[in-house]
Structure formats: C-alpha cells, structure tokens
Write a structure and sequence with these properties.
The complex is a heterodimer. Chain A is mainly alpha-helical. Chain A has one domain. Chain A contains eleven helices and two strands. Chain A has a two-stranded antiparallel sheet with strand order 1-2. In chain A, strand 1 and strand 2 form a beta hairpin. The longest helix of chain A has 30 residues. By secondary structure, chain B is α/β, with parallel strands linked by helices. Chain B has a domain of 166 residues: Rossmann fold. Chain B is built from ten helices and ten strands. In chain B, the strands form two sheets. A six-stranded mixed sheet of chain B has the order 6-7-8-3-9-10, with helices on both faces. The chains are: A mainly alpha, B alpha/beta.
Chain lengths: 289, 257
C-alpha cells in the first residue's frame, strides 16, 4: 500500500518535471535554443494563477484559462521582441540571454508579488481521494490528469493540424519550410507561446502542492535533467524522463537514507549519460550525406 | 516581351564578403524551361536563392508577374507562386512522405483540389505512393529527389526553380527525373528555371539557356544553338575535337575570353 502511494505521489511530481521538460524540448527542437528560463516561466505562470484566482477572486477554471492565455501571449512576445534579435548569434550568448531572462523574471516577480510565500486555493485542495484504501491528495491526481489531457491535446495538434505539422517541418528543415511558404519566424514565436503555455499549466497545477514564491522556478534544473534523460529532442522522451525522475525521487525519499532524494535526479542523469549518451529516446535524425 | 514571367535586371548578390553574382540579367518566358549552366561555384545556386528570397541582392531588380521580389522573405515569395526545389534533397526527414507532400500545399486553401493534386503527384511518382506512410528520411536519394519535386508540384506554382535535380543520382534516376521534368512542362505547362551541371541533359530538355561563369553570364542562346556551339561542346559536354597532335591548340580559347 505504502509503495503504491509513493508511486502515485512520484507520478504526480514526475508529471510536473515532464511538463517543464516538454517546454525545454519544444523550444530546443525548433530553434536549437536551450531556454534556461523555462522554470521561471513556470514560476510566472504560478504567480499569474495566484493573482487571478487568489487575489482577484475569479473562479478557478476561469483563472486557469486566463493564466494559460496570458502566458502564451508572454511567450510569444518574449520570442518576438527579445529572442528573435539574437538569431545568428553564437549558441553561448543565447544561453546566457535565457539565463539572464530567468534572473530578470525572478527579480520582477519578487518586486511585484513580494518574496512572501503564497499559496493557491483550489476547489480540490486539501481533499483526499480514497480509492480502495489508497489515500492520495487530490492535487496529485489533478496533476496527473492535467498532464495526460495536455499531452493528448499536444499530440493531436502536432500530428494532425496543419499548423502543427508545419511546426514539425520548420524544426526539421528551416529553409525548406520557408520555401513551402511557412512564415518560420512567426511559427517559432508560436512554439515559444506553446512552451510558455505548457509551463503555465505546470505552474498552476504545481501551485497547490508546493508553495508559490519567486524561487520555485529552480525545479527547472531537475526538469532539465529529465529532458536530458529523455534524449532532448523527443517529446514523449521528455515526459517519460520526468516520470522516471519523479518516481525514483519519491522512492529514494521513502526507502533510502535522507539526502538521497535530492541527488536522485542527477544520479540518473549521470547514469544515462554514461550508458546511453544520446538519452533514452533519442530521435535519430537522418542527416543527408 | 510581355510573356516573360520572371525578369532579373542587373542583380548583384554577395555571398558573405564575396560578390557571387556580378550583374545578371535574365528572362524566363511563360511555359518554357530555361536553364542556367555553369561549373561549381559559378553562382547558379545563388541566383536561385536570390530569386526565392533566401538571399538578398545588393543591387538590381527582380520582377515576377508584375511584382518586385527583391527584399521579400522566402515565405512571401513562395505564397506568390514560386516553388524553389533546393539542391541536396531537402526533405522533412521525420515527416511521412504524404505529410511532406501536403506541406508543399501548405499555403493553399482549396483542400479538395489539394487531394486531387496528391493523386496527380502519386501518378507521376509511383514509388511515393507505395511509401506514402514511411518517414521520408528513410527514402533513397533518388526517391527523396522525387519527393521534393512532387512537393513543389503540390504548391501548384506558376514557376519552379530547380536546383541541380540530378545531383548525386544514378544515371537511370537522372533519366527518370528529366523525363518527369519534360512531362511537367508539356502536360502541366509548368514554367521552370533549371540549374544544372549535367549540361547534356539540361540542354536537351530546355528551350533557352544561359551560361554562367564566375558570377557573369557569358553566353545565352536557344538550347539548339548552344548545343551546336564548340565552346559548349568542349567545356560543358565534354566532346573534344582532337588537335593535330592530340592536344589542344594554345590558340584555341573560349570565345568570351
């Protein structure tokens, strides 16, 4: 029983890692930029949720929707106004740029909302689901359900909508996509928007579990490990990498001496990098000779 | 002439610090195949990239059906009806063959006609139909070349820019590709600007030709006349007239030098 409980908590935590990792991979696949501000986008999303739901007292689902929309717009503008001007610059300067965007977001969030720890009240928080003797916080079940729904929507979008396929095409072969008449720059901004949207969902789902403060974005580091484990280029890989880390972290926390929980993510990343350097689900891109 | 679909006037394009195109003017007439011959580095690809907007000319004017193209983005140019088939088989490797073809029709709104055209393309390229569900990265080189040609057809362009469609293909495939190019021209009345190193094939399938050397056009004529010219025979088609001692006379030079 205890094992199952730990497993489900780990699953919930892993879904959060997976969602952030998804954001990393989305942007990386399309633009070859590693967005180190991904965790801070999550933080910003959580603060938006707290503002809409906690402070403005809007209904939960309306607040959720507004959070998603605001963050998508934020992601779009971030790419259009800041990142796009860096096209053609070296990889390193773009990485430094995203790291500093993270700093700025943290500082700005601290300035607006203060450094006090806020929490988000939800219709389901505090309630326990009792499934055949398993007692699980509903927050975790909502995280898992939310992740499944979002993944299915994203999958359908990328697989079947013409914009989704155009996004795939632009990330596989930018110039050829241009020749097809795809406005590649706008498509990249849209990918940033999706990535920020995913971060917003993760942030809103996470807010009731962990508390909301400007430093909560550092969860992004573990999610980065998840993306690396998954192969940094595969969307399902990112989710599965997140799950692996989430579950093993919880297991380590329960069954291993204290301290192990914190290093599990990096230990697994280390193992994967030594044994299978391309990650578990690396997509082997057929490059032309 | 009024039936010119595309005109270039005094185009100069830099490739990095190098002036790759040094004042080129050329015309493409509606319904014709026009070819540009030239060796490696002569600037053929740069011309096509300049037309499709991937490179920006320093000087000069490009006019396509009454619109100026220079300084436009490649996606804008594509929407106006120019399909660029880049060299080196630029497929979307992780998309299926069918998804690749549908990407060609990305800017089109008439979904019904798109499906009809898909059948037309499959009729031209039987292999693609057999492999329509496969990832295009797994196709052979020749099949990928067919795929990018088919993808360009899906756009129903008014002008196709073909960049070395025969590059790296086996002789049999080269013959196939050129048969299809000719068929496209005669059946679909497709206008094409064809860039090739395989002068023999290019001249046989085209109506008019330009010869490019070091970023300048050194010769232009109908393809019949070009094929009859000694210079083209010797330098581009490899047909050499033996001199008295089996060597080239030093006096013999290209007429444009």
């Amino acid at each position: 029983m205890e094992f199952l409980q730990v497993l489900i908590t780990g699953l919930g935590q892993g879904c959060l890692y997976g969602l952030i990792a998804l954001g990393f991979v989305l942007i990386y696949k399309a633009t070859e930029i590693v967005n180190f501000a991904q965790g801070d986008l999550l933080m910003l999303g959580a603060f938006f949720a707290v503002t809409y739901i906690g402070i403005l007292d809007l209904p939960y689902w309306l607040g959720f929707l507004l959070t998603i929309i605001s963050m998508a717009v934020f992601g779009y503008l971030l790419d259009m106004l800041v990142i796009r001007s860096m096209i053609g610059e070296s990889q390193l300067s773009i990485i430094i740029l995203t790291i500093s965007i993270g700093f700025i977001l943290r500082a700005v969030a601290g300035g607006i909302w203060g450094s006090d720890i806020l929490s988000l009240e939800t219709p389901y928080s505090g309630e326990m689901a009792n499934i055949e003797g398993l007692v699980i916080g509903q927050e975790y079940l909502v995280v898992i359900a939310g992740t499944i729904v979002l993944s299915v929507i994203l999958f359908l979008f990328f697989k079947f909508s013409s914009l989704g396929i155009a996004m795939q095409a632009s990330s596989q072969n930018q110039l050829a996509a241009y020749y097809m008449g795809v406005p590649v720059k706008r498509v990249f901004s849209l990918i940033w928007a999706i990535s920020a949207l995913v971060a917003a969902v993760a942030g809103t789902l996470m807010a009731p579990i962990s508390l909301v403060d400007p430093q909560m974005g550092f969860i992004g580091i573990k999610a980065f490990a998840a993306a690396v484990i998954g192969g940094f280029g595969s969307l399902p890989g990112a989710l599965i990498g997140g799950l692996i880390i989430g579950i093993s972290e919880q297991l380590a926390g329960t069954y291993l001496p204290t301290g192990f929980q914190e290093i599990t993510a990096y230990l697994i990343m280390f193992l994967v990098l030594t044994l299978r350097p391309k990650g578990l689900f690396a997509q082997i891109q057929q490059k032309k000779v | 002439m009024s039936d010119n679909i595309l005109t270039l006037r005094n185009i100069e394009t830099y490739y990095g610090p190098i002036l790759a195109i040094r004042g080129i003017s050329l015309d493409v007439q509606k319904g014709k195949i026009v070819t540009i011959l030239g060796a490696n580095g002569a600037g053929k690809t740069t011309i096509l990239k300049t037309i499709s907007g991937a490179m920006v000319p320093q000087k000069g004017k490009i006019e396509f059906m009454g619109r100026e193209l220079q300084k436009q983005n490649p996606d804008w140019v594509a929407r106006k009806g120019i399909a660029h088939v880049p060299e080196g088989r630029e497929v979307f490797p992780l998309l299926s063959v069918q998804e690749n073809l549908l990407m060609g029709a990305y800017v089109r709104k008439d979904k019904k006609k798109v499906n009809e055209d898909l059948e037309v393309v499959y009729d031209y390229f039987r292999v693609l139909k057999e492999r329509s569900k496969q990832k295009s990265g797994l196709l052979s080189g020749g099949e990928q070349q067919m795929l990018v040609l088919g993808r360009a057809m899906m756009a129903r362009p008014k002008l196709m820019l073909l960049d070395e469609p025969s590059l790296g293909l086996s002789p049999l495939f080269v013959q196939d590709i050129f048969n299809i190019i000719k068929r496209l021209n005669t059946v679909q009345k497709m206008t094409m600007l064809l860039v090739e190193q395989n002068a023999n094939m290019a001249l046989q399938s085209s109506a008019y030709g330009y010869v490019l050397e070091n970023g300048r056009i050194v010769m232009e004529d109908t393809c019949e006349n070009l094929m009859a010219s000694d210079d083209i025979k010797e330098f581009y088609m490899g047909i050499k007239e033996e001199g008295v001692r089996g060597k080239r006379r030093w006096k013999k030079r290209k007429t444009w030098r």
